[in-house]
Hints:
The structure holds 2 protein chains of 2 kinds. Chain A is mainly beta. Chain A is 0% helix and 50% strand. In chain A, strands 2, 4, 5, 6, 9, 10 and 11 form a 7-stranded mixed β-sheet that branches. In chain A, strands 1-3-8-7 form a 4-stranded antiparallel β-sheet, with no helix packed on it. Chain B is 0% helix and 53% strand. In chain B, strands 2, 4, 5, 6, 9, 10 and 11 form a 7-stranded mixed β-sheet that branches. The radius of gyration of chain B is 13 Å and the shape is globular. Chains A and B meet through strand 4, strand 5 and strand 10 of A and strand 5 and strand 10 of B.
Amino acid sequence: DIQMTQSPSTLSASVGDRVTITCRASQSISSWLAWYQQKPGKAPKLLISKASSLESGVPSRFSGSESGTEFTLTISRLQPDDFASYYCLQYNSYPITFGGGTKVAIK
Amino acid sequence: EVQLVESGGGLVQPGGSLRLSCAASGFMFSSSWMSWFRQAPGKGLEWVANIKQDGSDKYYVDSVEGRFTISRDNAKNSLYLQMSSLRPEDTAVYFCSTYRPSGPADYWGQGTRVTVSS
C-alpha cells in the first residue's frame, strides 16, 4: 500500500499569510494526487487534481506542485474562508489512500 | 446540479448488519464510477470501496474486504453499501461520491452516520 505522510498536522496562521502543506508518498504515484478541503460537519471539497490542476471555481490563491514523491499545496494569501482541514489523496493505485490531514487554525 | 444523498445510517450492535444507500441525480449515473468513503469521529478520511459503471469491477480497502459489499442499480440511480459483521471501528460518517475514470473523487454527498455499539 502507498503511504501518504502529510505535514504539518496543524498550523496556526493569520489572514494574508502564505501557507504550505506537504504530502510525501512512500513510492512513485506519478502526478495522481488530489487535495481536498473539509470544514467541520461538511463533505470534503476537491480543490486540486493531477497534483496541480485547479478545479473549476476554486480561487487562484490555491496552487499545487510536485517534486518527485513530494507534493505541496500552497495558499498564497490566507482568507477567513480558508480556515479548515486539508487532505491529500493518492489515486495512483488501490487502495486509494489519504494523508493524515492538516488543520489550518487562526493564530 | 449533481446531488448525492446518503441514507440508511444508524445505531447497530457489533456483529450486526446495515445497508447504506446513495441516491444520485443531476448527472449520468450509469456512466460514472462511484465510491464510498468514511470518517471516524475526530479522525481523517478513509476510502472504503469503488465500483465501475456497470458493476463489473469492485475494489475495497483491506479492513472491510469480505464484510462490505458495494453495489449499484443504474435503473434507480442508486449506490449501495451492504455492511455486515460490523465492528466498533466501523463507526464513522459514510460518504458516497462520484469518481472520475482516472480519479479522483469529485462530488460528495453530505454523509450518513453509522454507530456500532452495544
